[in-house]
User: What shape does this take?
Amino acid sequence: MPFEPPYLHPDYRSTVLRAPRRELVRLPAEWFHHAAGPSFGRIPVRPEDADLTRQHLGEPLGERIIVSGRVLDSDGRPLRHTLVEVWQANAAGRYLDPVDDHPAPLDPNFTGAGRCLTDDQGRYRFVTVKPGAYPWRNHANAWRPAHIHFSLFGTTLASRLVTQMYFPGDPLMPYDPILNSIPDPRGRELLVARFDLDTTVPEWALGYRWDIVLRGRGAAPLEAG
Amino acid sequence: MNPTPSQTVGPFFGFALPFEDDANALAPHAAGAVRIEGQVLDGAGEPVPDALLEAWHGEQFARCRTDAEGAFHFTLSKPEAAPGAAPFLNVIVFARGLLRQLCTRIYFPDERAANDTDPVLARVEPQRRHTLVARQDAGALHFDVWLQGEDETVFFAL
Assistant: This one.
């Protein structure tokens, strides 16, 4: 399954001591992959969680954007009323997280965390600001391309997905060991949103479109990698 | 359609993914509540302070971020066993350095007979099965997640 990253990808240094070294145990899909996934019903989702620009008294700095798309399973069915969680750096490339010590400013009007449920057609939509690139210490002069983190549940154990969405044309993508852990360029392409004039709201915000496909019952088991 | 590939949860999710009472699918003193405590460790035996674990069975769901010592805890009830199987909790581990999640299970130490005949445990090499069974400590079950090492936890292929 060349579209999935392996666990061990030494260019991303943190994998070296964290990727399992033993062979993963294979179970029949009916026992395991198709078993019920986690139930997200306890996670609170408020209507204002989908607009990351309106969670404080003022508006955050940065380029206002709309990110929207559909959540489908790999059998082509829309996933209705499923939870989508997002989190990101602010426009300066700084996370609100206390672990982040990058010397770029925090924005008092931006948390950078959102949630929404997909609608009857499996659509989601967030309003936010475009996240900035930021340095990390993986290697000399290492910078993460701008990205938004996504977490999705689906219905089965195998459909649970945490991933990252990238922006088209970002010059940092070819240098990023996390994105390039996916060996096949077609797999990497699946993580890049496209600029979309139909999602763009005139005089207000640029629109990006990104569809997300979760593993359905017909999906082949992954290589142990 | 090709599934969207996975990427790491990264180190900076702690301000975003936790929610109120996330680690407690049940109130800690509710009838039948079982507390499970443990640590996530890397191949050097160092704690992993930036992991996120999710545990569930049925409608019960708990999420816990590891602390600076790599420690986590959950409160859930012990599930009913399916016919011919031992009761277990599903666990998913996300972390910085994990490009995909890891899936494991927590089995119960007081279910020795059921564990001995469980069809999933039967697919695991006998000398590694203990990594899937919690240990009874005072007042809580204990379950460590070793991402690597001599006692690497058994993970299941997605």
The CA atoms of residues 52 and 128 of chain A lie 5 Å apart.
